[in-house]
Design goal:
- The structure holds 3 protein chains of 3 kinds.
- A 6-stranded mixed sheet of chain A has the order 2-3-1-4-5-6, sandwiched between helices.
- Helix content of chain A is about 45%, strand content about 20%.
- In chain A, helix 1 crosses helix 6, helix 5 runs parallel beside helix 7 and helix 6 runs antiparallel to helix 7.
- Chain A is built from 7 helices and 6 strands, in the order E-H-E-H-E-E-H-E-E-H-H-H-H.
- Chain A has one domain: Pyruvate-ferredoxin oxidoreductase, PFOR, domain III (Pyruvate-ferredoxin Oxidoreductase, domain 3), CATH 3.40.920.10.
- Chain A is an alpha/beta fold.
- Chain B has a single domain, classed as 3-Layer(aba) Sandwich (Rossmann fold).
- In chain B, about 35% of the residues lie in helices and about 15% in strands.
- Chain B contains 10 helices and 10 strands.
- Chain B is globular and about 65 Å long.
- Chain C is α/β, with parallel strands linked by helices.
- Chain C is globular.
- In chain C, strands 2, 3, 4, 5, 6, 7, 8 and 14 form an 8-stranded mixed sheet that branches. Chain C has a 5-stranded mixed sheet with strand order 11-13-12-15-16, sandwiched between helices.
- In chain C, about 35% of the residues lie in helices and about 20% in strands.
- Classes of the chains: A alpha/beta, B alpha/beta, C alpha/beta.
- Chains B and C meet through strand 2, helix 3, helix 5 and helix 10 of B and strand 2, helix 3, helix 5 and strand 10 of C.
- Strand 2 of chain A pairs antiparallel with strand 9 of chain C, so a sheet runs across the interface.
Chain lengths: ~180, ~300, ~375
């Protein structure tokens, strides 16, 4: 089944890297197909830059996403700009402190995480995107977490693997916990 | 043939010279050439042949690259690996040739319009990079092949078919341009100064890095006739009478006016590592043993 | 021969089309690249610049695309396998040297990551508007080969193929990517070096005294030498004889130019490559290439679901064009639908070869994004109902 994912945030948050990690995890470590497209040009450096990833069990024909089933946002502007695109019943993942979900759609499932705070606790704000990835992996169950961990290791700068794995696990565990609480 | 008495003796010319000493450097099966009687380009080719003769270079490893125009035809007459490329682009072609096969001695031989109008951008960058090549520019102040149009070297007030009322654009001072861009060897001679020119070409060929020689040459059919300067011989006499040898001068002062004084000489001869040397040193520093110095 | 293992990054990678193209070039044995930055092709040369020092290659960023496009020709005559990479305006600037490469039979690869034009157009958005320019962009008569990848994997595979064809036919080969394929990241499998087939340069190995630089073999392609080998070659963009000497006559022109065209034309069956899906039983065949061949798939699927017999012919080699195949399809009465990211280019080639026997429908798009598959679907459907 084709799943469309959009990741939005501002430049420097590692939006593109996040998309790359999801795609790489799916295509290289999880026996799936994936296509990632990044927004290029001035818009890629602005306050609402985005990466698009498609994950499928079959080869992907049409390369762009039209109605994402999963939206991950790390900035207010990205939330405002992209959340109307989310398909009804889709999953919205937001950063708790950076995004205030004004007029939140009733037809989507919303999860949020204080990823920025977790990243700061780990000593490096930069890993916010990896915390988000761990959290997204847990709440969407789209991609095998081990595949995601492998993709994180393979995609982050050398020497930062351990920190990034910690960040991923932090987000992942927070997500599992949240699911457990929701189902209770 | 005994030494010609046109200028001070620089070379001993041997008595037992064959009929045409540069014949082995020419593609005799392409003669006669297309140049007009008393055109200066052939004279420069003769000097080039003589320079090759005494250069000690392996002729199988000398490649010549020309652009388009009267001087652009030089490549086609030389019995070397020779490339007649597109208008203005012999330098970037030569860049690729040299970088792909660094054992070649690469010479670019072209005209003023080719090298400095349409090809000006390539000249300044090749000099800046200090690519190991020799550039010989035959400057006849005009576009010859297309019939006498104004060039970036045409002196102020000289006329051309596209400047019929006289040129008012400031021409390039080529040695100044070459030096500013980083050439390690810069000289200017005229078609009259055959032995100086031969020596300059020999020096340039021996130089590692970007060497540049400007050779003023008569275009009797177009430039001289249109500007009422007589024929090729008259121009040679003019060069003889109006040239002033001044080595190592500030190239800024080496401007050319219409039928004014011509400063000739070797203006620049300095050392600066060439492109491939810099590249190899840089990557060796960067990658250490992982890097194999590039030799082609 | 097999690829030089040095530089072949065997394994599964997650790469965009531009980077996959760089890896294809390295695997193919390319060791000289000249380029000038231009969106959306720049990533190709960035990766080359990163990778080349440790695989024995030289990359130089030239002062413009004109310089880049002739520096590679110098590099080829210096003995290297060579490539330049560009987009849109840069491709326009390179046209003269595609002609020089064709005229001097210099093996080389030009990569054009197509963006929407004309002029500066949409630098960061896709189009397929350079297809006719690829074929006819330089003045005079000549022939080239052009390939159209539709995925990063094909950007890798077809770059190798481009180098092989360039060496086989001593011709410029154009890799016609587009922004979408170039900036799309997917899985790319790089095989072990010993599984990569490489066409070596056709170096002359006969007696030196018999050597003529432009004397063709039976397949109309002359063997080559490089500068410095002692052959004292002369290479000119002027019309020339077999020795390479300028020969300014209609006779020399009539001998040389038809051969330059015929070496591609007469070998076309060996060069042409396309993929077909359910063409035999089809009433309508969609003819597509590059990214559009993927965008057409949902449209074809939808039409098939509704009982329309739709086939798909995807051009992998666009030039030379598979004229015979289109003629056969038209003779069998199959209506043809041509979606492309331009306002009609390959369409005219399809229409010409259909000889008016069947309806040929263009699904145009000015570029900037890809088609909405619905547009292609509607074209398929309207043919069916109209015919």
């Amino acid at each position: 089944m084709r799943t469309e994912i959009k990741i939005g945030g501002f430049g420097g948050q590692g939006v593109i890297l996040s998309g790359y990690i999801i795609g790489r995890a799916a295509a290289i470590y999880d026996n799936k197909y994936s296509t990632m497209i990044q927004a290029f040009g001035p818009e890629a450096r602005g306050s609402a830059c985005s990466a698009q990833v498609i994950v499928d069990l079959e080869a992907i024909a049409y390369p762009y996403i039209t109605t994402p089933q999963i939206l991950v946002v790390m900035s207010q502007e990205a939330y405002t700009k992209f959340s109307p695109e989310l398909v009804a019943g889709g999953i919205l993942v937001t950063e708790e402190e950076l995004v205030v979900p004004h007029s939140l759609r009733k037809d989507v499932i919303h999860y949020s995480i204080p990823a920025m705070r977790f990243a700061e606790d780990l000593g490096k704000k930069l890993v916010i995107n990896i915390v988000m990835m761990g959290f997204m992996t847990a709440v969407t169950k789209l991609i095998d977490p081990e595949a995601m961990r492998k993709a994180v290791i393979a995609s982050v700068p050398k020497g930062t693997e351990e920190l990034n794995l910690k960040a991923f696990d932090k987000g992942y565990e927070y997500g599992l916990e949240m699911l457990k609480n929701k189902s209770n | 043939m005994k030494g010609v008495e046109m200028e001070d003796q620089m070379y001993e010319i041997e008595e037992t010279m064959p009929l045409n000493p540069v014949e082995s450097f020419l593609r005799m099966d392409r003669m006669p050439h297309i140049w007009c009687p008393s055109c200066g380009i052939g004279t420069t080719v003769n000097c080039f042949g003589r320079a090759l003769e005494t250069s000690g270079l392996d002729m199988d490893k000398v490649a010549i690259v020309s652009g388009i125009g009267c001087t652009g035809r030089v490549a086609g007459y030389l019995n070397l690996d020779s490339f007649h490329t597109t208008h203005g682009r012999p330098i970037p072609f030569a860049t690729g040739l040299k970088l792909a096969n660094p054992e070649l001695k690469v010479v670019v031989y072209s005209g003023d319009g080719d090298l400095f109008a349409i090809g000006g951008n390539h000249f300044i960058h090749a000099a800046r990079r200090n690519l190991d090549m020799t550039v010989i520019c035959v400057n006849n102040f005009i576009y010859g092949m297309t019939g006498g149009q104004v060039a970036p070297t045409t002196p102020i007030s000289a006329t051309a078919t596209t400047a019929p009322h006289g040129n008012f654009e400031q021409p390039f001072n080529l040695p100044y341009l070459a030096e500013s861009c980083g050439a390690v060897y810069v000289a200017r001679w005229t078609a009259y100064h055959v032995r100086y020119l031969t020596k300059a070409i020999k020096e340039a060929l021996a130089k590692k890095g970007f060497s540049f020689i400007e050779v003023l040459a008569p275009c009797p059919t177009l430039y001289s006739r249109r500007n009422k300067l007589g024929d090729g011989l008259d121009q040679m006499v003019f060069y003889k009478e109006h040239s002033e040898i001044q080595h190592n001068i500030d190239t800024k002062t080496a401007t050319l006016d219409f039928q004014g004084k011509i400063i000739v000489g070797k203006f620049v001869d300095k050392e600066r590592p060439d492109y491939l040397t810099l590249m190899n040193e840089h990557y060796q520093k960067k990658f250490g043993d992982k890097y194999t110095p590039y030799k082609g | 021969m097999k690829a030089d293992p040095k530089g072949v990054l065997t394994g599964a990678h997650f790469l965009d089309g531009d980077h996959a193209c760089s890896e294809g070039a390295i695997s193919a044995g390319c060791r000289f690249v000249a380029g000038y930055p231009i969106t959306p092709s720049t990533e190709v040369v960035e990766r080359i610049a990163e990778r080349f020092p440790l695989v024995g290659g030289v990359f130089i960023q030239m002062e413009d695309e004109i310089a880049s496009s002739i520096a590679i020709l110098g590099g080829a005559w210096g003995g290297k396998k060579v490539m330049t990479v560009t987009s849109g305006p840069g491709f326009s600037l390179m046209m003269e040297h595609i002609g020089l490469a064709a005229m001097t039979e210099t093996p080389c690869v030009f990569v054009d990551v197509q963006r929407a034009g004309p002029s500066t157009g949409l630098p960061t958005q896709p189009a397929q508007g350079d297809m006719m320019q690829a074929r006819w962009g330089s003045h005079g008569d000549y022939a080239i080969i052009a390939l159209c990848p539709n995925s990063p994997q094909e950007c890798y595979d077809l770059t190798i193929k481009a180098f092989n064809l360039a060496e086989q036919y001593r011709v410029p080969v154009l890799l016609m990517m587009d922004e979408c394929v170039g900036h799309m990241t997917e899985r790319v499998i790089i095989p072990p070096a010993e599984e990569i087939e490489i066409t070596p340069r056709r170096f002359y190995d006969g007696p030196k005294e018999d050597f003529l630089l432009f004397k063709p073999d039976a397949d109309l392609v002359p063997p080559m030498v490089k500068a410095g080998d002692g052959y004292r070659i002369h290479v000119t963009g002027l019309t020339h004889d077999e020795k390479g000497y300028p020969h300014m006559s209609p006779t020399a022109q009539a001998k040389l130019i038809p051969r330059l065209v015929n070496k591609i034309k007469l070998n076309a069956d060996k060069i042409i490559e396309y993929k077909e899906d359910q063409v035999e039983g089809a009433d309508v065949v969609v003819v597509s290439y590059g990214i559009t061949s993927r965008v057409a798939l949902p449209a074809i699927e939808q039409a098939r679901k509704e009982g329309i017999k739709v086939g798909h012919l995807r051009l992998i080699v666009a030039w030379p064009f598979p004229e015979k195949r289109i003629q056969e399809l038209a003779a069998k009465g199959k209506a043809l639908v041509v979606p492309e990211l331009n306002l009609g280019q390959i369409f005219y080639e399809v229409e010409r070869n259909a000889y008016g026997k069947v309806p040929v429908t263009l699904v145009p798009h000015p570029g900037g994004t890809v088609h909405n598959p619905k547009e292609i679907y509607n074209a398929i459907k309207s043919i069916r109902h109209g015919g």
